[in-house]
Write a sequence for this structure.
């Protein structure tokens, strides 16, 4: 299902309940879909549910060296990089960043065997990395200040790279580079949509419902009825 499919489904469900004069557009319905999706996912994952691959997205971005002011507290023996563009907002979770995977992007096929995932941590853990028995030589990534920072050990397994692929659960799927409103698959499973659709119809769109036709036919949403907005 694309975002266009979901919006069309909502229009179909509400066409008998709203006046032709009611101001509803694609952007408003998309906002309701994004909001309820993020809320549903946050509640599910905070309750310990596993991540459904249908709700994730991925994109590629270049990285650039971090400034001196951005690497305060980082352990010695690491070079710090950051994404060149802002990290799209992720769904807010209690215990971890909603980033599922970060891997290097190599143009040389000879390096394909070195495409190993980085360890995703939070900002508070960044100053303690690299001290464990099984973490030496590994790369760490953490979100901070709308960017993703990457800690690369001076000596490790990875060859030099200039881009990374990020896979995560993002609050607004349209913020992902390359996402197309009309053709891209919306990151949502069918059973999730049935739940979210009901919530949108019963909560977000309730204010637009009317119980009878516009008696004045004056191109305004001033219909009088049990569910109409009161003046």
């Amino acid at each position: 299902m694309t975002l266009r499919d979901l919006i069309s489904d909502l229009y179909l469900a509400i066409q008998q309940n709203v006046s032709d004069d009611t101001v509803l557009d694609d952007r408003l319905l998309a906002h309701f879909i994004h909001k309820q999706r993020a809320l549903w996912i946050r509640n599910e994952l905070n309750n310990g549910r596993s991540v459904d691959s249908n709700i994730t997205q991925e994109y590629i971005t270049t990285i650039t060296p971090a400034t001196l002011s951005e690497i305060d507290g980082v352990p010695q023996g690491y070079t710090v990089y950051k994404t060149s563009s802002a990290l799209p907002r992720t769904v807010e979770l209690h215990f971890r960043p909603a980033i599922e995977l970060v891997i290097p992007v190599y143009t040389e096929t000879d390096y394909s065997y070195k495409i190993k995932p980085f360890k995703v941590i939070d900002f508070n853990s960044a100053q303690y990395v690299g001290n464990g028995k099984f973490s030496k030589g590994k790369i760490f990534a953490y979100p901070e200040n709308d960017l993703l920072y990457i800690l690369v050990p001076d000596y490790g397994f990875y060859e030099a790279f200039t881009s990374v692929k990020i896979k995560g659960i993002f609050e607004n799927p349209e913020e992902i580079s390359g996402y197309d409103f009309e053709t891209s698959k919306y990151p949502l499973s069918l059973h999730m949509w049935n739940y979210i659709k009901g919530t949108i119809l019963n909560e977000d769109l309730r204010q637009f419902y009317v119980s009878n036709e516009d008696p004045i036919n004056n191109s305004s949403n001033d219909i009088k009825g049990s569910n109409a907005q009161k003046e």
Q: What stands out?
A: The beta strands are 57-65, 78-83, 99-105, 119-120, 140-144, 147-153, 163-168.
